[in-house]
Amino acid sequence: MPDKIAFTASRAEVAQTARAALITRYGNVAPEDAEVIVALGGDGFMLQTLHASQQLDAPVYGMNRGTIGFLMNTYSETDLRDRLAAAEEAVINPLSMRATQADGTVVEALAINEVSLLRAGPQAAKLKITIDDRLRMAELVCDGALVSTPAGSTAYNYSAHGPILPIGSEVLALTAMSAFRPRRWRGALLPKDATVRFDVLEPEKRPVMAEADAKSVTGVVTVEIRSEPSVAHRILFDPGHGLEERLINEQFT
Predict the structure, then answer these.
(1) DSSP for 75-100?
(2) What is the pTM of this model?
């Protein structure tokens, strides 16, 4: 049963109030000294916490003080240590994004949910798609495209009509947003170890931005995306409410 708990919370008042109450009851240590990190907020804050703690040994247990809370457990103050002791662990690898801007600047970032490319002007984007150095689509005209992990497949990917992926499926989803040509092209499933490269065609006329979770890069001309096995995020869930169960349940609601 963990004794050393680090409590972190979003700036929302309800999250800050919960953090104060839990610290009063259970104490608090710095994240680098913790056996487990408890994140209080919504899914966006959970992603922030996972990124911030990726170099630490402690897993992250979220309690929902936000809106949807897909990555979070229900909030309760009374039985936290017992819940932590019984929690089930899911391990996920993020995506690595390497985005090159028109001036040659290279921006690298990690994404737990997805890397997305979005048109940044009034005209549709034109993208060339290469998978593992093999040209797969010479021209995709669309509002955007994304590559999603299984963990992120119920987020932006699902809103764009992409598939929900089982957590252990070892695949990535490549999904188009409002594809115009090929008309109604919905994307593809790719092996987890695939490297996806997007080249932006006509970047001055049709500017594109890239996003890795919350990190944005404007004026990109190429974006390379791959899974990053060297980084493993450990997330804790209450028994029977793990990430795999949530992904399955989402398909029947």
Answers:
(1) P-SSSHHHHHHHPEEEEEPPEEEEEE
(2) 0.86
